[in-house]
Design brief:
The structure holds two protein chains of two kinds. Chain A is of the alpha/beta class. Chain A has a single domain (2-222), classed as 3-Layer(aba) Sandwich (Rossmann fold), CATH 3.40.50. Chain A has helices spanning 37-51, 69-78, 94-108, 127-135, 188-194, 235-244, and strands spanning 2-6, 9-11, 33-35, 57-64, 82-87, 112-116, 139-149, 152-159, 162-169, 172-176, 199-203, 216-221, 230-231. In chain A, the strands form two sheets. A nine-stranded mixed sheet of chain A has the order 9-8-7-10-6-1-4-5-11, sandwiched between helices. A two-stranded antiparallel sheet of chain A has the order 2-3. By secondary structure, chain B is an alpha/beta fold. Helices cover 26% and strands 29% of the residues of chain B. In chain B, strand 9 (125-130) and strand 10 (135-140) form a beta hairpin. In chain B, helix 3 packs across helix 4 and helix 5 packs parallel to helix 9 (303-313). The chains are: A alpha/beta, B alpha/beta. At the A-B interface, helix 3, helix 4, strand 7, strand 8 and strand 9 of A face helix 3, helix 4, strand 7, strand 9 and strand 10 of B.
Amino acid sequence: MKILVGYKRVVDFNVRIQVRPDGSGVVTEGVKLSANPFDHIALEEALRLREKGIASEVVIATIGPADAQAHVRNGLAMGANRAIHVVTSAAIQPLTAARVLLKLVEKEQPGIVLLGKQAIDDDCNQTGQMLAALWDRPQATFASKVDVEGTVARVTREVDAGLETIEVDLPAVITSDLRLNEPRFIKLPDIMKAKSKPIETIDFASLGVESGDSLKTTRHAPPAKRSRGVMVKNVAELVSALEAKGLIR
Amino acid sequence: MSTILVVAEHLDGRLNASTARCVTCAKTIGAGAIHVLVLAEDPAGVAEAAARIEGVSRVLTVARPENAHALAAVLAPQIAAAARAGYSHLLAPSTTFGKDVLPRAAALLGVAQVSDVSEVEGPHTFKRPIYAGNAIVTVEAPADALLVGTVRTASYAAAGVGASPAAIEALALDVALPSHTRFIELVQGASDRPDLQGASRVVSGGRALGSSENFAIIHALADKLGAAVGASRAAVDAGYVPSDLQVGQTGKIIAPELYIAIGISGAIQHLTGIKDAGTIVAINKDADAPIFEIADYGLVGDLFTIVPELTAALG
């Protein structure tokens, strides 16, 4: 079985995001870019399924600008067998991303598509669900545990009410939550090895995908700030302050 | 005027309060009418609760055995079919339920989705947070297409109870449902405390608690206040409490009237989950902890002394 993994490049999660003063976007020049943390977890899970003998090949897919090659190489260094890089300079929206992934799914025929539950830049949390809908296959979102047996995957999902377990027939889309696993570190020999792994580059336009980018972002603004309050000296002061605001008793 | 369809979230025959929060959002869009869609095995009780929400003019029910559990692959085709009946907007709460099912419905309808609507600027213009709430974008959706959106529930208070209940109608949908996705089980944290997402008071503990056993002092304070219990990601990762108690960007985003953060330093991911809280109290031994930058009341000291003292002081 083949596993296709979505592997998006985003602003590193440690970067303090700053909104441009003219509201045209956030500052991305000169900031560190990394794999979306949830995609990183998705790739780790795919590699573990290969190591267990359940998957035979792990293919990563990146949709992004031409300079995302180094990012793609990182995914190969982590252990993916090969990569597909759909090249576009546009910041495409989830419906378009799902349509692109569907094209790749039709070509690659994976048994599982593993994606991050959301990208930490646009925080949309849509692409996996949309791909599953367009593909007309099951989805198991927010996965914290994945067990594959034959043609069925049993997935535990982190939902608001607790932990839900569902069973899905393969092929299916699975999206990773934070606690699915802890990704491995890349070792130097793997970086050398990754240099000879194949990357197939596909021009976005050549896929013939209808754009679903119908939302227009007109303004970026910094969030409203909460201001620093007062420091109380002891429990008695805290209790009287909360009482005065009618928050207790 | 537009007509808005809100997808009801429910579990074990009870309507989730997130639905009434969505109705409040729908009202700010300026709807001519607001309908609520209840998909269930036996929707009667949930539908009655939805019909009492102020502002709801009609409740539509679909009773099918396949709807016994909220499986996105089963619900989405029904939601898409219902939404095709001339609605201008399709909304669901941005809870794990809505996040799971609504994008699937949007893709079936061939339209984009606006996730986490936090403010309505016009019928097709919305504000939403990106980058874990570190930037707020204004998004314009095409006026000639169905608007699909999830509502950031912490941004909206729940709509109240209306003067007279809305009409309840059974909806006949001719939709084939898949069997490729099957519910196995739901393990819920056994608790008689209020639900974290909807509670008006929340007491949260962080890594400084040091162990699962030590969380007992958080529980004791929460019980005294009638509060829900939450936790930081660090406390969840350390295994002190289950993951469904996690507050923050990757956990639950909440807006209680009173939030008490105990032994939580205040990583940006955590602060994102509480910034709409009414009053924030922070108790931490590190006076330089970032949580104090946003707390309304801060108290520096040893939580193992302060928390029992606070619990006792509340009588």
